[in-house]
Design goal:
With 86 residues, this protein is an alpha+beta fold. Helix content is 16%, strand content 30%.
Length: 86
């Protein structure tokens, strides 16, 4: 899981605006698996508030999306590794 926070500055003064984020990873779905064994967890629009309110168990929300959800293309003649570097 990756985490972070952000602040907004005005000149030399930085104001913390309390925004934070987290990136949860799950096993890769069929679209991503040829490139990597993990992917970001993706919540559908109807899952967002249920996740934030804790209304559904994690196992119900944090699962790979169906094959064909992502459009993945490899550039012709290019190695996949540079595309995966962060």
């Amino acid at each position: 899981m990756a985490t972070g926070s952000t602040s907004r500055g005005s000149g030399d003064r930085r104001l913390s605006i309390g925004l934070t984020y987290a990136i949860l990873t799950i096993e890769a779905n069929a679209d991503i698996a040829p490139f990597h064994d993990r992917q970001m967890a993706v919540l559908t629009r109807d899952q967002r508030m249920a996740w934030l309110d804790g209304l559904l168990p994690e196992e119900e929300i944090l699962r790979p999306l169906p094959a064909g959800t992502f459009r993945v293309r490899r550039r012709a003649g290019a190695s996949a590794q540079p595309l995966l570097a962060i």
